[in-house]
Amino acid sequence: QVQLVESGGGLVQAGGSLRLSCTTSGIIFSSNTMRWYRQAPGEERELVAGITSAGSTNYAHSVEGRFTISRDNAKNTVSLQLNSLKHEDTAVYYCNASRWGRDYWGQGTQVTVSS
């Protein structure tokens, strides 16, 4: 059974930081591209950051320079460091694992940034 479990969300003031983690099981973690998405109320889900099995990263323009994605294959975990948070970063953040067209999702973790 595949499971992706996010943690680390919460309430933070603008300018603050959070670190999200996603622990996986039931997949060959090291072979999956891992991504973080987010969805704000009334908005579509959008890609925030991704990291391939080789370690290449990409970021949405809106978070580049503020967020950092990383992975620990030994712990089957992907993380997202969120710095210099803005009110518009408020959303539910979802972890995604993707390989050969098959996608798995976590349940999401809420990030709320107060202005």
What can you see in these coordinates?
The chain has 115 residues and is mostly beta strands. It has no helices and eleven strands. Strands 2, 4, 5, 6, 9, 10 and 11 form a seven-stranded mixed beta sheet that branches. The radius of gyration is 13 Å and the shape is globular. The termini are far apart.
Key terms for this structure?
7-stranded mixed sheet; 11 strands; 0% helix; mainly beta; 115 residues
Average pLDDT works out at 97
Specify the overall morphology: globular
> How many strands, what sense, and barrel or not for the largest sheet?
7 strands, mixed
Tell me the number of strands: 11
Low-confidence stretches: none
Helix content range: under 10%
- The portion of residues forming beta strands comes to over 45%
- What is the CA-based Rg, rounded? 13 Å
End-to-end Cα distance, whole Å, is: 40 Å
Helix vs. strand class = mainly beta
Topology of this protein?
Blueprint: E1 3-7, E2 10-13, E3 18-25, E4 33-39, E5 46-51, E6 57-59, E7 67-72, E8 77-82, E9 91-99, E10 102-105, E11 109-114
Parallel strand pairs: 2-11
Antiparallel strand pairs: 1-3, 3-8, 4-5, 4-9, 5-6, 7-8, 9-10, 9-11
Concise synopsis of the structure shown:
This protein is mostly beta strands. It has strands spanning 3-7, 10-13, 18-25, 33-39, 46-51, 57-59, 67-72, 77-82, 91-99, 102-105, 109-114. It starts with a strand and ends with a strand.
